[in-house]
Amino acid sequence: MKFTKMQGIGNDYIYVNCFEEPVPADPAALSRRLSDRRFGIGGDGLILIRPTPNGDAMMDLYNADGSRAKMCGNGIRCVGRYVYERGIARREELRIDTLSGVKTLKLDTENGTVRSIEVDMDAPILVPEQIPVRLPGDRAVDIPIEVNGRTVRVTCVSMGNPHCVLFVDDVEKAPLESLGPMLEHHPLFPDGVNVEFVQILARDDIRMRVWERGSGETWACGTGACASLVASVLCGHADRAATLHLRGGDLSIRWEEESDHVFMRGPAAFVFDGEVDV
Which of 78, 156, 164, 221 is catalytic? Predict the structure, then answer.
């Protein structure tokens, strides 16, 4: 099977062009095997680029543990660059189908090369039962919850996948390795949750680290960056447009008041092409 390794600010996946390659019989098992960084190719998961009647291509995503994900902001930018530069759809505006709906991508290109991509991530979902999180009320904003005998305050947002945002004084000192997995599997989150630790530097300048559901700490999470900005606005910490600094690089995020949509802009990069026995 031919594959391409790509990364969006350090969030790296193994991509398979299923316009040319057959869809694997067991993508979940394949993702677990290939994502292993010692005995496989190495990555945060497997993304199949598949034909769809709903757009130019479909992003079919499997995390490193084999669980299926609905959406990935860094992954979809890489899909956009692949689709454009590898000739699947040579357009500067693309429609990429996902399990959380069709997303519109606007490509900034120069001499046939994609420089950056802006993704319309749609409106954030704030109703607890739709995120989902087992909390009462219309929104879960700055809510105290109990985690292993300690109380933490969380703000919950879905960007097509569930996120739990915590504000900290210093993301480098945040207890991500211990608190991240406990929140990921907390009974309040029936589908699990991605956990963002957010440090406010200024109203338009934010630093974050992320514990991703099914993958552990990753160097970046596009949907997590969007959820972090939304949570920062809801809690009164930030304006509606900001630069998000993640371990792998920066993303520009804005939450439009009129449309209620969140827009994410950032890079996508090829790493290498290869072939593996499946």
Answer: 221
Pick the CATH number of 2-120+266-275 from 3.10.310.10, 3.90.220.20, 3.40.50.2020, 3.30.465.10: 3.10.310.10
Every domain of the chain and the residues it spans: 2-120+266-275, 128-260
Q: Which residue(s) pair with 158 in the sheet?
A: 125, 162
Residue 157 in tokens: 């947002």
Q: Tell me how far apart the alpha carbons of residues 231 and 242 are, in angstroms, rounded to a whole number.
A: 12
For the stretch 57-78, what's the b/e string if a residue is b when 16 or more beta carbons lie within 10 angstroms of its beta carbon? bbbbbbbbebbebbbbbbbbbb
**Known catalytic residue: 72?**
yes
Please tell me which residue in 72, 78, 156, 164 is annotated as part of the active site. 72
221 has catalytic annotation: yes
Which of these, 232, 186, 226, lies nearest to 210 by C-alpha position?
226
**Pair 261, 121: CB distance under 8 Å:** yes
The pTM of this model reads 0.93
pLDDT digits (tens, 9 = 90+) for 36-74: 999 999 999 999 999 999 999 999 999 999 999 999 999
